[in-house]
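2024-03-11 09:14:02 INFO worker-7 job=invfold-0412 stage=load source=structure_tokens
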């Protein structure tokens, strides 16, 4: 997820930095003017839509908030234009707000928001605890296709290429190869690159098996060949892409066929944690409990309070 934030930052650093800075200045100007311009904009919203909407401020350390800022401004576009037409003749009307009546400005906002929205969605997807390294590859593939098909792809392709270059590509490719649900996707790129040939995958499997599990690789190369050809290494199981969990699939293989090195390797690689979201959530949870006024709380009681808070949230979510 942190890499996605950095990717958003890199995208903004292209030709879009000017428009993002302009939107940030507009939203900041309006939100700071709580007694003058913001109430007047709210009055225009009320007359136009029948309700008011807030303008989301971009957070300094959360690049994904750029999408929220752009979207919040785009959804009140008509009210903003009417606001400028009504108040632009005022003697102290802020200079930053004149852009709200510029069609080119709104078109650029739409372009930026549409591309950053994809990165934001991917960021939320990668926060799931069930993610594997194969899911990371799939999401980065979606970003790659969006960048590649964009009219200004020459600006954005280096961003995703540099991000992929910093990854341990062999491990990610092997995870995609071993994920039962993504077999059809892997078939499309098999032998298309040096990293996705059968020979390279055998080398990757042997390397990581010896690194993570044991130096005795057994029949691992043969099992890789069987998985490559049939997707079911001579085991006669059902269509693997219909299974809910890749761990259930490989657990079954490991149980049914004793000594399967490929099953052991798949379980290890697909179990590698791809984010620190769970830890960060726990830190945030503890920070809300162990505050300045309650700084004498013992660790045991803090843990219990955290468990109670989680249980209450889960119960309320079920009711909703």
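2024-03-11 09:14:09 INFO worker-7 stage=emit residues=320
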């Amino acid at each position: 997820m942190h890499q996605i934030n950095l990717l958003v930052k890199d995208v903004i650093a292209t030709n879009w930095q000017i428009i993002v800075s302009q939107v940030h200045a507009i939203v900041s100007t309006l939100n700071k003017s709580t007694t003058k311009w913001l109430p007047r904009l709210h009055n225009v919203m009320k007359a136009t839509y029948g309700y008011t909407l807030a303008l989301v401020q971009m957070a300094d350390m959360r690049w994904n908030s750029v999408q929220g800022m752009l979207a919040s401004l785009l959804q009140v576009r008509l009210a903003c234009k009417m606001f400028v037409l009504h108040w632009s003749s005022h003697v102290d009307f802020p200079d930053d707000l004149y852009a709200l009546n510029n069609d080119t400005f709104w078109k650029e906002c739409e372009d930026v928001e549409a591309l950053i929205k994809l990165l934001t969605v991917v960021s939320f997807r990668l926060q799931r605890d069930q993610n594997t390294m194969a899911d990371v590859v799939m999401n980065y593939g979606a970003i790659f296709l969006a960048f590649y098909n964009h009219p200004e792809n020459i600006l954005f392709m280096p961003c995703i290429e540099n991000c992929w270059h910093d990854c341990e590509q062999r491990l990610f490719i092997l995870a995609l190869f071993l994920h039962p649900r993504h077999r059809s996707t892997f078939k499309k790129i098999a032998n298309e690159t040096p990293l996705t040939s059968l020979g390279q995958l055998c080398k990757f499997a042997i390397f990581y098996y010896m690194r993570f599990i044991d130096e005795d690789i057994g029949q691992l190369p043969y099992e890789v060949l069987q998985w490559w050809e049939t997707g079911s290494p001579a085991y006669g199981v059902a269509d693997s892409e219909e299974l809910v969990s890749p761990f259930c699939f490989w657990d079954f293989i490991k149980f049914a066929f004793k000594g399967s090195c490929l099953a052991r390797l798949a379980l290890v690689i697909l179990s590698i944690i791809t984010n620190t979201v769970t830890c960060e959530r726990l830190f945030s949870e503890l920070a809300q409990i162990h505050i300045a006024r309650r700084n004498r709380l013992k660790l045991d009681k803090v843990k219990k309070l955290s468990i109670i808070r989680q249980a209450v949230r889960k119960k309320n979510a079920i009711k909703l």
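2024-03-11 09:14:09 INFO worker-7 stage=report msg="Residues 234-241 have pLDDT under 50 and may be disordered."
2024-03-11 09:14:10 INFO worker-7 job finished
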